[in-house]
């Protein structure tokens, strides 16, 4: 890990700290559940706005229209142009998808 200091003593490192949140993502054809990471001082929407083309999702499950699991993966990237909506699980009134 590289650590650099500026004139005022501010520390700069190459490590970016992020926190995770469990989300439900609706694409044009499927639903995806998993963990998305974003910077602690930002909101989830800020991460989406900063992302170039793909959003990284870990512990991902791809679901069909009946919420049946089609695929599972430790890592998945979702093209942000295909996202219809994204919902943090902590905002769900009733959990319907697992």
Would you kindly provide a written description of the structure presented here, covering whatever features stand out?
The protein has one helix spanning 44-50, and strands at residues 3-5, 11-13, 19-27, 31-38, 54-63, 69-79, 83-88. The protein has a 5-stranded antiparallel beta sheet, with helices on one face. It has a two-stranded antiparallel ribbon with strand order 1-2. 7% of the residues lie in helices and 51% in strands. It has a single domain (17-90), classed as SH3 type barrels.
Ordered list of secondary-structure elements with their pairings:
Blueprint: E1 3-5, E2 11-13, E3 19-27, E4 31-38, H1 44-50, E5 54-63, E6 69-79, E7 83-88
Antiparallel strand pairs: 1-2, 3-4, 3-7, 4-5, 5-6
Report a brief summary of the structure.
With 98 residues, the chain is mainly beta.
Label this structure with key terms.
two-stranded antiparallel ribbon; SH3 type barrels; 98 residues; elongated; mainly beta; single chain; 7 strands; 5-stranded antiparallel sheet
How large is the share of residues in beta strands?
over 45%
What is the CATH class name? Answer: Mainly Beta
Number of domains: 1
The largest β sheet comes out as: 5 strands, antiparallel
Q: CATH fold name, please?
A: SH3 type barrels
> Which geometry do the CA atoms define?
elongated
Alpha-carbon distance between the two ends: 37 Å
Mean pLDDT: 85
Helical amount: under 10%
Spatial strand order of the main sheet: 6-5-4-3-7
Poorly predicted regions are: none
């Amino acid at each position: 890990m590289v650590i650099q200091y500026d004139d005022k003593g501010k520390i700069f490192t190459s490590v970016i700290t992020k926190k995770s949140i469990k989300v439900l993502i609706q694409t044009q054809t499927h639903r995806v559940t998993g963990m998305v990471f974003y910077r602690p001082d930002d909101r989830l929407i800020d991460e989406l706005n900063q992302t170039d083309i793909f959003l990284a999702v870990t512990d991902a499950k791809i679901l069909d229209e009946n919420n049946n699991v089609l695929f599972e993966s430790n890592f998945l990237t979702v093209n942000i142009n295909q996202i219809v909506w994204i919902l943090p699980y902590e905002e769900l009134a009733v959990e319907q998808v697992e």
